[in-house]
Design a protein that fits this description.
Length: 106
């Protein structure tokens, strides 16, 4: 997932309920689908962040000295400025990029 190319809002905005429920016909089902996608996005972002921070990690047994690593700070700031996973999932839902199926309706 390319987080830099998303057009999801960083701040909270209000969406049209009928636009959200348009594909499923049920707002609760649409919200459940978006929530599951938000959990997937969150785990992907967390995994990516941990991998990037581990590159800069220094393993030191001494607790006396704590070094500030500027690269770690910059990576953390970048991820803090990203849209939240729920905003990304709502944007994917509105852009029709989420595949879903209901096994009860087959």
């Amino acid at each position: 997932m390319d987080l830099k190319k998303t057009n999801a809002p960083v701040n909270t905005i209000t969406y049209n309920k009928s636009q959200i429920e348009e594909r499923t016909g049920n707002v609760y089902e649409a919200i459940t689908i978006m929530a599951k996608r938000a959990n997937q996005i969150n785990s992907e972002i967390k995994k990516e962040l941990i991998e990037k921070l581990d590159e800069f990690a220094t393993y030191n047994d001494s607790l006396e000295e704590i070094f500030e690593n500027k690269e770690q700070i910059e990576v953390s700031k970048f991820y803090e400025k990203l849209p939240k996973p729920h905003a990304l999932s709502v944007q994917e839902w509105l852009d029709d990029k989420i595949y879903y199926r209901n096994p009860n309706q087959d």
